[in-house]
Amino acid sequence: MDIEHLKVRLMKKQWIALTISLLLLTLCLSGCELLEEEDNYITVNITAYAQVVLINEKNEPIQLIPGVPVHFDMIKAGGERLQFDEIAESGQTPFVYGSFHLYKEQDIEIIATPNLESKLLTQPFPSYVQLNWADIYPATDFGGSYGWTPVLVIELKNSSAGGGI
Q1: What pTM was estimated for this model as a whole?
Q2: Which residues of 42-52 are buried (b: 16+ CB within 10 A; e: fewer)?
Q3: Using CB atoms within 10 A of its CB, is residue 123 exposed (0-12), middle (13-18) or buried (19+)?
Q4: What is the pLDDT of residue 139?
Q5: pLDDT tens digits along 40-51
Q6: CB within 8 Å of 74: residues ≥ 6 apart
Q7: Most buried residue, 9, 15, 76, 107, by CB count within 10 Å?
Q8: CA 6/CA 11 separation, integer angstroms
Q9: Is 103 exposed, middle or buried (0-12, 13-18, 19+ CB in 10 A)?
């Protein structure tokens, strides 16, 4: 029994020493600031929409075209992609929203493509916008955010001989 009593006393001493060590370590490190890594990207928040416009043979806008389905591709540096499908009810789509973490020398492009399956219309020019790193970085620094609100104009021509839609 005497040996058991000594073992218990030894364990108590070890437990107390361990507790005091942890307490001192906690108190000593509580004043240290944690080194936070700086962000190495800029958050780009995008709010985009498209207008669908009928153009004449001189490529001049004539009128907005309602009811055209539009597919949006938001692409970061040729890789990460967000996709949306909207309808240009009154010749203009609702807003589409996206956000990317943009790293040094990356860009963002948005492509708007109309669905012309049932229309007698063609799209002579692609509807495309691009945001370059050189435009973003002077406006905000790493860890910051940048807002971009592009309007994509989808120009369509009548492909029928009659001239009207």
Answers
A1: 0.70
A2: bebebebbbbb
A3: middle
A4: 85
A5: 899 999 999 999
A6: 46, 48, 81, 82, 83, 84, 96, 98, 100, 108, 109, 110
A7: 76
A8: 9
A9: middle
